[in-house]
Amino acid sequence: MAGILGLIAAGVSIAGTLYGALSASSASDKAASASRQAAQEAQDLAKYEADLFRARGAKLVSSQRALYGVAGVQMIGSPLEVIANTSAELEQDALAIQKGGQARARQLLGQAEVQSSMASSLLTAGLVRAGGQALSLLTQEGLLPQ
Fold this sequence. Notes:
Helix content: over 70%
Order of helices and strands: HH
């Protein structure tokens, strides 16, 4: 009777080890998935913000042109250079916004890779622990030679 109870207790322990490993692995997989989603959202947000910045920039350039026109300034030489420089600077800033979002996305994707790797490692470690427990049990019960 004591042998049967020992086997049952060991079986429950092994099952608990496997369940814990599966749960931890699943949690890491979910975290990796959330990080991938956050990376996509960071890129989407950066693109949206860059597009808004470009739209505001286009309005600024239009206002510059209108003010030069109202003042009677011809659109040659310095005024044209000012508008061209403004447009170029605005585009550089918009690109910087997008690159910031891309950098954040790369960081989150790297985090997702670590989390995926951790999920695999946790599952492997749990399987090894459970296998060790099973071998130990079989040895103790005399079912395997020592």
